[in-house]
Write a structure and sequence with these properties.
Elements (H helix, E strand, L loop, with lengths): L1 H33 L2 H14 L7 H10 L6 H25 L1
Helix pairs in contact: 2-3, 3-4
Amino acid sequence: MADANLQEFSKQQFDEAYKRALERKRLFKEYLSRHQVMEKLNGAIEKLYECERLPEDPLEFIAVEVTSKGGHGGASSIQQQGSLKAKLSGNSRSLNGQQ
């Protein structure tokens, strides 16, 4: 009899914990939706996919794209910086070779 009561109590605890977890998950999804987090992340990943030249750091690209207020050109400046760095390092190599 005590064993049956313990099992019932354990099942009840499990059910309550499961319901709390489902509710927390639902509230978290609403929170993300309210702030359009998934839409912004998906948009940034799509822009990354469409890049002609992939940036050196995809996470930085996504972070800039997601946090840029206008949503235009934020990540492209990262690409431009990467191109400039590559050009500068190429120029420094050629200068070092000339010396």
